[in-house]
């Protein structure tokens, strides 16, 4: 979710539902508790080596709400959009090539919406000029970090000679593109709301966000909220059932996206589907304008995009995403949505 603030209240919220095991939840930026909502219909099929994903909501330059998230992963030899070995922002968890991933094909899929909709090419300098003097903060967990670092890599590739300064504090990382006065920030907050230590243990205060956190958020021009993986517990592993491969134990050795034999065999289901529906219902009750970046279905197809054993961690990782990779598509959709907003009057610029 992205929220543009006016220092007093929110203008536009963009809710992002993300990435197979993660859902980015909505938070109202007015005074009051978080609101969760959202929805997805993630179908997939095979047609001329294109991978189909289901519909969603949202807005983008020249594309209808439906077409933006209903489309195909298309193999494109011009991809990836940058060389990850030249990006100084990638954490070891996501640096798959550095840690020995032998295949490259996963880097060369781009998201192509249907219905004749063409996403604009990500132009980092154009993004920075549009954002001049503004601050964007990603708030959430390590999946927020995934998207944050992807965006920094995409921007760095466009303005590699620009003066970029970095600051790191507990729970807060900042990269500032000094030539443009643009700060991109990451604030670690797994649940978004307050946690208190009590006699019974750690207690989530679902209706409470600390004054210090609130003041920090209100200094931002854009807030990108993410929470899901820390709330969602599935119990025993389901393996590859949701990828149409029941015998699959994990994402190891997966080098291609999901290619089901029938167009409607794969869907985001179970608890994830119910939670997404709850999110969608809650969004309808929020009075602020909302744009929904519905990336769950399209990400769900990319079983090939996870670090697996190719990261700096001593464990198998089928939750996060390689950089370069799938998070670049999230940021291209974010970029497209931002460009589609009128310069005047606000909500965005």
UniProtKB/TrEMBL annotation:
Gene Ontology CC entries for this record: Golgi apparatus; membrane
Signal peptide start and end residues: 1-36
A single GO molecular function term of this UniProt record: O-acetyltransferase activity
Keywords, alphabetical: Membrane, Signal, Signal-anchor, Transmembrane, Transmembrane helix
Trichome birefringence-like C-terminal domain span: 119-235, 240-336
Subcellular location: Membrane
Source taxon at top rank: Eukaryota
Residue intervals of the Trichome birefringence-like N-terminal domain: 67-114
Name this polypeptide is given: Trichome birefringence-like N-terminal domain-containing protein
Organism classification: Eukaryota, Viridiplantae, Streptophyta, Embryophyta, Tracheophyta
């Amino acid at each position: 979710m992205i929220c543009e603030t006016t220092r007093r209240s929110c203008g536009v919220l963009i809710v992002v539902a993300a990435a197979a095991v993660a859902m980015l939840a909505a938070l109202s930026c007015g005074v009051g508790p978080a609101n969760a909502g959202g929805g997805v219909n993630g179908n997939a099929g095979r047609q001329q080596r294109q991978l189909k994903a289901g519909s969603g909501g949202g807005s983008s330059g020249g594309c209808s709400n439906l077409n933006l998230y209903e489309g195909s992963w298309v193999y494109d030899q011009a991809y990836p959009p940058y060389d990850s070995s030249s990006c100084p922002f990638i954490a070891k968890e996501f640096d798959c090539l550095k840690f020995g991933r032998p295949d490259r094909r996963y880097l060369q899929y781009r998201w192509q919406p249907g219905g004749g909709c063409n996403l604009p090419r990500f132009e980092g300098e154009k993004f920075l000029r549009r954002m001049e003097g503004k601050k964007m903060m990603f708030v959430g967990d390590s999946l927020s970090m995934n998207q944050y670092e992807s965006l920094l890599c995409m921007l760095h590739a466009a303005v590699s000679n620009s003066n970029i300064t970095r600051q790191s504090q507990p729970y807060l990382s900042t990269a500032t593109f000094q030539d443009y006065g643009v700060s991109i920030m990451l604030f670690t907050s797994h649940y978004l709301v307050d946690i208190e230590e009590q006699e019974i243990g750690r207690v989530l205060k679902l209706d409470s966000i600390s004054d210090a956190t609130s003041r920090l958020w209100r200094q931002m021009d854009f807030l990108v909220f993410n929470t899901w993986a820390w709330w969602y517990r599935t119990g025993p592993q389901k393996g590859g059932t949701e990828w149409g491969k029941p015998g699959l134990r994990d994402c190891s050795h997966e080098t291609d996206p999901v290619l089901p034999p029938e167009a409607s065999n794969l869907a985001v289901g179970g608890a994830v589907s119910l939670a997404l529906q709850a999110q969608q219902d809650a969004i309808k009750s929020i009075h602020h304008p909302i744009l929904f970046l519905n990336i769950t279905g399209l990400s769900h197809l990319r079983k090939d995009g996870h670090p697996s054993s190719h990261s700096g961690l001593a464990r198998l990782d089928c939750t996060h995403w390689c950089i370069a990779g799938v998070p670049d598509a999230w940021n291209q959709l974010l970029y497209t949505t931002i460009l589609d907003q009128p310069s005047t009057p606000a909500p965005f610029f």
